[in-house]
Specification:
Blueprint (H helix, E strand, L loop, with lengths): L1 E3 L10 H6 L36 H11 L6 H24 L8 H15 L3 E3 L2 E3 L3 H10 L5 H19 L7 H6 L5 H9 L10 H27 L7 H24 L11 H42 L1 H20 L4 H13 L9 H4 L7 H7 L2 H12 L1 H11 L21 H15 L11 H10 L7 H14 L1
Antiparallel strand pairs: 1-3, 2-3
Helix pairs in contact: 3-9, 4-5, 4-6, 5-10, 8-9, 11-12, 12-13, 12-18, 12-20, 13-17, 13-18, 16-17, 18-19, 19-20
């Protein structure tokens, strides 16, 4: 089972930069002018998921952790209460109305519930939820216990598994409703097996158990999608790429759990023999959590460094600093329209913010000169892309890669740009996007030597230079972005 709860994410995973970007005035440079688990941890309702935007998994995990300690919103609480109450009604009805020839003692029920609770506490954090190895206990439950009691046992186990967090105040009590919602996955297979007469897990009956597994997937997806639609306004179809993890994890664990059920047929309480495997998975989950922690810390360090460098640019030259921040918004819009993946959008964001970082090496009298630059001054100005790459390469890592993009942010489509004379597809795509957005921003911003041009004129100028200075596909996406925002 994948405990899963989500409502959407910020379009950019690097929200720290995103929030600090000033509201865009749509401005940049042409070559002739001076030059972006049941834990139930919902994410902000930004609509990113419903729009199909690819989102960095670590960023999702970070937001999920941050919001895990917040109470449910009113709408989410109402939807969760409705689905949780409906689950209890159905589960109690099954327990009362269905019959079974299977007989187990109370102690066996306790062993199963405790084992399931332990398994539910093992979190493999994935995006907005956690993959938990409860399938190792659920299948033996369905195979050995009176099936009509299994949904209630699952709900009790999930609540028991979350009890330490509730007791310590780490998770608000109202989030226990999500554990009832997450228990719906047990209803589907229970209905299938009850309808089939609760057969034993023999090879002859494996098709029935396969159908029960499909019912588990359907009920898990249905309850999650319904809760997210009613409580968070998220399209059910936007969940599918995450729900694949449900099916992958549960499908992988099902054969092992079937073998465990066959081995425990005479003595159901022997399900505890699965505990060493559960313990091993707990160790791996902890290792994964530590790696994610380190990745998030490193990401924060890169973001902090990028913001610090952005502040250095703004302190050195107020126009260049604010201009770079303004370009970020437009670059991200164009990158999203062109279907760039998470990694490329991250690079685009950093490159847009830092594409002029090398100007801190250019004398202020050249940067702020009100008139036209001389040939010697223009040669000095053009060194800022190389200086930017050099500065960012000293930071290394992600920003070192961004430095290579920054170097190419003034290359022209026809090969007449600088510093390397690259042309067409030789120029990194992100650099082509920054180039066009940078030019648009400069043309639509007041400068010391001219007034800002209207957006329509700036777009017309970009289209005129499409195929020479700028990538035609990028110009088309930029024109669409500007048109939609006006």
């Amino acid at each position: 089972m994948l405990t899963f709860s989500k409502s959407g994410v910020p379009t950019s995973p690097y929200g720290v930069i995103w929030r600090r970007v000033k509201k865009s005035q749509r401005c940049a440079d042409t070559a002739e002018m001076a030059t972006s688990v049941a834990t139930g941890s919902p994410l902000p309702e930004s609509g990113a998921l419903s729009s199909g935007v690819d989102v960095d998994a670590d960023a999702l995990i970070e937001r999920s952790r941050q919001l895990a300690a917040t109470p449910l919103g009113d709408r989410d609480r109402l939807a969760s209460l409705l689905l949780g109450s409906s689950f209890l009604v159905v589960a109690i009805a099954l327990a009362v109305l269905a019959d079974s020839t299977r007989q187990v003692g109370f102690l066996t029920l306790v062993v199963f519930v405790a084992s399931y609770a332990l398994a539910s506490r093992i979190d493999f954090e994935i995006g907005t939820g956690s993959a938990v190895p409860t399938q190792l206990v659920l299948v033996p439950m369905l195979a050995l216990l009176p099936v009509q009691y299994v949904p209630l046992c699952v709900a009790a186990a999930l609540l028991l598994g979350g009890l330490p967090e509730y007791a310590r105040g780490r998770v608000p009590v109202d989030r226990s409703l999500l554990r009832l919602v997450n228990s719906w996955h047990a209803v589907g297979p229970a209905l299938v097996l009850i309808a089939a007469g609760q057969p034993a897990p023999t090879p002859h009956n494996l098709p029935i158990y396969a159908l029960a597994l499909l019912a588990q997937f359907a009920f898990d997806f249905g309850s999650t999608a319904l809760r997210d639609r009613l409580g968070l306004g998220v399209s059910p179809w936007s969940l599918l790429r995450f729900m694949v993890w449900i099916w992958a994890v549960d499908s992988a664990l099902t054969p092992i759990s079937v073998l465990a059920a066959l081995g425990c047929g005479a003595h159901p309480s022997l399900v505890v023999v699965s505990l060493p495997l559960i313990g091993l998975l707990a160790y791996f989950a902890r290792e994964r959590q530590v790696r994610i922690d380190h990745a998030l810390e490193l990401g924060h360090a890169y973001r902090g460094t990028a913001m610090l460098l952005g502040d250095v640019v703004e302190a050195d030259d107020a126009y260049t600093g604010s201009h770079s921040r303004d370009v970020v918004t437009l670059v991200l819009d164009v990158a999203t329209r062109m279907g760039l993946d998470t990694s490329a959008r991250r690079d685009a964001e950093f490159a847009a913010l830092l594409h002029d970082i090398g100007k801190i090496k250019v004398p202020g009298e050249i940067i702020n000169k009100p008139g036209k630059l001389t040939d010697e001054e223009w040669d000095i100005m053009k060194t800022h892309t190389v200086e930017g790459e050099r500065l960012l390469s000293q930071v290394g890592g992600i920003l070192g890669n961004v430095g290579k993009i920054v170097r190419s942010c003034h290359e022209d489509w026809d090969g007449t740009g600088y510093p390397d004379g690259l042309s067409a597809e030789e120029i990194p795509l992100v650099a082509r996007i920054v180039r066009a957005c940078d030019a648009f921003s400069a043309m639509t911003t007041d400068r010391s030597y001219r007034k800002a041009r209207p957006a329509e004129e700036a777009i017309a100028e970009l289209q005129r230079c499409s195929g020479t200075d700028f990538d035609p596909v990028v110009v088309e996406a930029l024109a669409a972005a500007v048109s939609s925002s006006s």
